[in-house]
Amino acid sequence: MSTANVNGITVGYDDEGTGEVLVLVHGHPFDRTMWRPQVEHFSAKGWRVIAADLRGYGETTVVPGITPLDVFAADVAALLDHLGVERFVLGGLSMGGQIVMQCVQAFPERLKGVILADTFAQAETEEGRLDRNAMADRLLREGMSGYATEVKWKMVARHNPEAAEFVAGLMHAAPPQGAAAALRGRAERPDHTETLATITVPTLVIVGSEDEFTPVKDAEYMSERVPGSTLVVVDGAAHMPNLERPEVFNRAVEELLAQT
């Protein structure tokens, strides 16, 4: 594990392999270890793979309050500046995918390819804003355990208990203040529908067939709006296809990387 001091925080990250750069952004409420199957696979395939803990998660500084998506995106850019990386393929899952779309808006010239996994582009609804802020209050009041137990079998399909236990461990370990700050930030997220149409680099939209959080229709919505994008539905996976069916997920990413 390495650390870097950027934007007033200390970021924990993995930087493995050599070659062209693939950057992976984790979802909520996880940390960079959710990408371990991809870091190992692609670093062995001739890619330099960078996966960092977002602020408020894992081994990165917890900043209470509210963390908007543009702050996460600025942290991604600052870490890559620190590492001397100018251009890269950028992928993210769930909240990580929304951060990727924020990065597309903020610095499109740096991107060589885009991966949008189990995410969606629309702005939050009024009901969603209330729900996310209420959940943030709950996490601060109760901690992560109740939430983690409730959503485990939405994160991962029931026929994959090994992946479910790993994902549950990540959720139980997440810092409540960091998770709450991210929830409050996502409650105010912008609509990135128009951002999708501006993407000019090879793009993979990938989703689990059983995902309840971001169903296949959300992936279809995004893919239809990104010119020339590829849509892959991972059969038998829920919200974490990179962990549930890593061989299928990695094959789809390999095909994307071959286009960049």
TrEMBL record:
Pfam families: Abhydrolase_6. Gene3D superfamilies: alpha/beta hydrolase. One of its GO terms (molecular function) is hydrolase activity. Keywords: Hydrolase. Residues 22-252 form the AB hydrolase-1 domain. The keyword Hydrolase applies. PANTHER family: MONOACYLGLYCEROL LIPASE. This is Alpha/beta hydrolase. It comes from Lentzea pudingi.
